[in-house]
Write a structure and sequence with these properties.
alpha+beta, Porin, eight-stranded antiparallel barrel, 2 helices, 17% helix, elongated
């Protein structure tokens, strides 16, 4: 009797397990069918995406890497890294010439620092409008924030000193007139781009970003997009680029970017 009861219980338990497995398989199939239907209707369906891009800001330029993880049909979690340079609108590039020939490197009058930045952030990408078909354009909103690392690298000029030797100098109170005098004949040009990195100062900060992305990639597996957005950054110290312009802590700019990548 006991053996019969155990056998019956085992049979019922096995049937329940088989039923659960079949139910899970059916739910999985339905989910796959729904994803296929959504993709055919133009939705962006993937598990993760990665992209590289170039960015032109109203005050500089940058390059970035972005990684996204699919959450649902409308939301994708993002993190990104960006490296670039901020410039002043007051920058004026000059060259020195002799008998119609340029001598030395072009230099920027009144510049005392190069301002480079590195940013790391997290955020979300929200689908606003699907492609409608595989050849359409998907529109998404991107928003997020993160940390910024600002680097002020002294801007060096190549000049001819009183003894006739060519030396590299950075701004100081002692050579203030050299950086202020546009026609100073001792200035030969800007020093090499690598000059000054050993003197660079690190300044911590934070940033926030909002944007619209227009993905025109022909297939969902490819990410090809134009992005337009706004960026805000705040640093713990004034970031001065030009001699006659006070440094500031807060930077706000608009940008346009091109992004290319893959989804899978």
């Amino acid at each position: 009797m006991i053996m019969l009861l155990c056998a019956t219980t085992g049979l019922v338990f096995g049937q329940d397990q088989q039923k659960t497995r079949n139910q899970k398989k059916e739910e999985h199939k339905q989910k796959i069918r729904q994803l296929i239907k959504e993709e055919e209707e133009g939705a962006l369906i993937f598990s993760k995406q990665s992209a590289f891009g170039i960015k032109l800001n109203t005050d500089g330029y940058g390059v970035f890497y972005e990684h996204g993880k699919y959450k649902d049909i409308n939301h994708t979690g993002l993190w990104w890294l960006e490296l670039g340079e901020r410039k002043s609108q007051k920058e004026e590039k000059l060259t020195r010439g002799y008998n119609g020939f340029e001598i030395g490197n072009p230099f920027i009058f009144g510049k005392i620092n190069n301002f480079y930045y590195f940013k790391a952030g997290i955020g979300q990408q929200r689908l606003i409008g699907g492609k409608g078909n595989k050849n359409g354009v998907a529109v998404t909103a991107i928003y997020g924030a993160g940390l910024s690392a600002g680097f002020l690298k002294p801007y060096y000029l190549s000049v001819q000193d009183e003894t006739g030797n060519i030396v590299d100098v950075k701004y100081s109170a002692a050579n203030d007139s050299t950086f202020r005098d546009k026609g100073n004949s001792i200035i030969l040009g800007a020093s090499g781009i690598s000059k000054g990195f050993s003197d660079a100062k690190f300044v911590p900060g934070a940033h926030a970003r909002v944007a619209l992305r227009f993905d025109y990639g022909r297939y969902n597996e490819l990410l090809s997009a134009v992005e337009v957005g706004l960026n805000a950054e705040y640093y713990s110290k004034n970031m001065q680029i030009m001699l006659d312009n006070e440094g500031k802590k807060f930077f706000f700019n608009a940008y346009v970017a091109l992004a290319f990548g893959k989804r899978k």
